[in-house]
Structure formats: structure tokens, C-alpha cells
Write a structure and sequence with these properties.
The protein is α+β, with helices and mostly antiparallel strands and 207 residues long. It contains seven helices and seven strands. It is elongated.
């Protein structure tokens, strides 16, 4: 695979083969907040972070294979993927017992991060597109951060929930956050508070 070249549409995914990696993601998120919310009279831009439950262990291997085998640029690793993941994998648990895992990627395995990131990219794209052209998505593997106005944020979250159900992954709602970039000197609008209650997510203020 080519070094230093992002294989992800529109550079949403910054964890894999992108110069600066996660540091670039942090700077982009901060810059959007600082510029978008500095315009007098403009609608407030919020952030949304989502969390997958047991992300790397529960991603369906068949779905990962469909995505990887559907991209010719991954042809060099098709046989390696088949060798590692075609059969259940013995996993050692914290209590010392072993189980045979049929899903998920192996943490520490060379391809694991890229396989997982590629497999969730369609979910990220679908959610971002639901928010409209002004919605920005920044991802690093299983961590994704959306930035948009409140109406678009709700469309993103609703679509993300539906896409995850369809893809066989689950969101941990208590670890999903709506970010209000303003501090306590500017009260959070009631509509934003209602959104957090509707979807069972938490609010964080000041970014």
C-alpha cells in the first residue's frame, strides 16, 4: 500500500497514513469551532462525538471483508486478511480464560487499525452526508467528531444510530457527547438540552 497516501474520501479519517495523524484532527476540530462561532449573527456550531461499544472486538468480519475485497488497492493484503481472519481466533480474556472470536480485528495485528477504520468509513460518510454540505466530520479510527448547526447535528446522530444498527455495531450513548463551544457565560439553548435528553447523550460546554 502506498505510504503517506490517505485511502479515505475527503480525508475524514486521519488516523491512517495521513501526515500529522491525530494531532491534525485536534487542530482541525479546534479551528472549526474558533472560526465558525466567531461570526456575529451566525447560527451556533456544535460538536458531536460518538463512541462505539466494544468497537474493535465486535465489528463483523464478513462486513470488513466485503469492504476490503471491494477495493482493488487492497489486493496486496487480500490473502493475508484471509489467512488471519477466515477462521475463529483464540483470544485470551482478562481472567485467563480463552474464547474463540468470530468477529472483530486483533488488537496489535499490523492491519487491524486500517481494517477497522475502512470498515466504519461508510457509516461516517452516511452520517456526515445526512447533516448537509456544511457538516464537517473528523475521525481517528473508532473516534469520530462531527461539527454542524444543531439541526444538522440531530440529522447526523439519528442517521448514525440507524446505520450502526444496520451494520451490527452499537453506540454507547452515555459516552456520546454534544459539545457546546461556549462556556457558562453563554447559556446553552433549550433546544440543545432537549436534544441530549431525547437521544440519551451528555452535554459538554467550552471547547
Amino acid at each position: 500500500l502506498p505510504d503517506g497516501k490517505s485511502m479515505f474520501p475527503n480525508n475524514i479519517q486521519l488516523a491512517i497514513r495521513v501526515p500529522g495523524g491525530s494531532q491534525t484532527a485536534v487542530h482541525r476540530i479546534q479551528t472549526v469551532f474558533e472560526t465558525a462561532n466567531d461570526k456575529t449573527g451566525e447560527e451556533r456550531v456544535y460538536g458531536l462525538s460518538v463512541d462505539f461499544k466494544n468497537a474493535f472486538n465486535e465489528r463483523n468480519r464478513t462486513r470488513i471483508a466485503e469492504i476490503i475485497f471491494g477495493k482493488e488497492e487492497y489486493m496486496p493484503v487480500w490473502r493475508l486478511f484471509d489467512f488471519i481472519y477466515k477462521a475463529p481466533t483464540r483470544v485470551i480474556c482478562d481472567n485467563g480464560k480463552t474464547v474463540m472470536a468470530c468477529n472483530g480485528v486483533l488488537q496489535g495485528e499490523t492491519l487491524a487499525m486500517e481494517l477497522f477504520s475502512q470498515s466504519v468509513e461508510p457509516i461516517y460518510l452516511e452520517a456526515r452526508n445526512a447533516g448537509g454540505p456544511s457538516t464537517i466530520a473528523t475521525a481517528a479510527a473508532d473516534d469520530v467528531f462531527f461539527q454542524a448547526t444543531l439541526g444538522d447535528i440531530e440529522a447526523v446522530l439519528s442517521t448514525m444510530i440507524d446505520a450502526c444498527k444496520r451494520e451490527g455495531v452499537e453506540l454507547t450513548r452515555t459516552k456520546c457527547y454534544l459539545f457546546d463551544p461556549y462556556d457558562d457565560s453563554q447559556p446553552t439553548p433549550e433546544d440543545a438540552v432537549k436534544l441530549t435528553k431525547k437521544y440519551g447523550i451528555d452535554m459538554k460546554k467550552g471547547c
